[in-house]
Write a structure and sequence with these properties.
It is a single chain. The chain is an alpha+beta fold. It has one domain: Aminopeptidase (3-Layer(aba) Sandwich). It is built from 7 helices and 8 strands, in the order E-E-H-H-H-H-E-E-E-H-E-H-E-E-H. The protein has an 8-stranded mixed beta sheet with strand order 1-2-3-4-5-6-8-7, with helices on both faces. Strand 7 and strand 8 form a beta hairpin. Helix 5 crosses helix 6. The longest helix is centred in the middle third of the chain and has 15 residues. The chain is globular. The termini are far apart. The structure holds coenzyme A (COA).
Length: 218
């Protein structure tokens, strides 16, 4: 069957999405900037305990990987992947200040049109509805403008906060991947979740609004 494809080499990127009002503040997402380095590093160095146990193992020390000086390399590799249409990288802002990241990665087109989504938020806004709002904005964008059909998320069974984010958004649990990813120094089981565009004809933002978890600011 013929289906119109998305336009350009990197459909859906760059983009600015939101804002949505949630208990923590006004949530928006935008592409990462070179000048985000010091705010990003300040949060990442302060929040090591909050973040490290859930993130993929990587070479080097936490302090080196998350120093302000590490940002230009990360920013430019995210931008290069985005320009090749392989990733849609976003930072999350709360009341205009950087407060996390949402990344859509491993974008595969053709007859899959699929990608994974990953996210983190700063410890000072956890529990304030930031991740659900940011993920909803980005997933709707992926389905409506970036030409994707399926978004997958994998979460360690112990990560109750992240499981709640996916539950609030209505992601479907599809399985358990044994020893899937090297996280915090060991191969960890992950629960696999997904949504396809048909699951959310009105979008995830609409779902959050209908559930009273977010409002659109006047
Ligand atoms: C998982 C994460 C993104 C959730 O973001 P968030 O913006 O806090 O999401 P929510 O506000 O919807 O809160 C989700 C759940 O976190 C838990 N939570 C609430 N306050 C919390 C706090 N102070 N500390 C820890 N968890 C808390 C609650 O279970 C909450 O669910 P509830 O709203 O039903 O009570 C965030 O905790 C985080 O960045 N964690 C570290 C990185 C990570 O795990 N990333 C995901 C990897 S799969």
């Amino acid at each position: 069957m013929d289906r119109p494809g998305p336009q350009g080499r990197h459909p859906g990127w760059p983009a600015r999405l939101g804002p949505l009002q949630v208990p923590a503040g006004l949530v928006a997402v935008r592409g990462p900037r070179l000048l985000d380095g010091s705010a990003w590093s300040k949060i990442r160095l302060r929040d090591r305990e909050h973040l490290e146990r859930w993130e993929p193992t990587a070479p080097g020390t936490w302090d080196d990987r998350n120093a302000t000086l590490a940002w230009p390399g990360q920013w430019s590799s995210l931008r290069a992947l985005a320009r090749r249409g392989m990733t849609l990288p976003f930072v999350i802002t709360v009341d205009g200040q950087l407060a996390g990241q949402v990344t859509v990665g491993n974008v595969i087109r053709g007859s899959l049109c699929s990608a994974w989504i990953g996210y983190w938020v700063a410890s000072h806004v956890v529990g304030g509805g930031v991740a659900p709002a940011a993920v909803a904005l980005v997933v709707d964008h992926c389905f409506m403008l970036a030409g994707l059909h399926r978004i997958e998320a994998t979460v360690r069974p112990e990560n109750t906060a992240s499981l709640r984010v996916l539950e609030k958004l209505g992601f479907r649990q599809e399985g358990l991947f044994r020893r899937y990813l090297d996280v915090a120094g060991a191969w960890r089981d992950h629960l696999a979740f997904a949504l396809t565009a048909e699951d959310v004809p009105d979008g995830l933002v609409y779902r959050l609004l209908a559930d009273g978890r977010a409002t659109i600011p006047q």
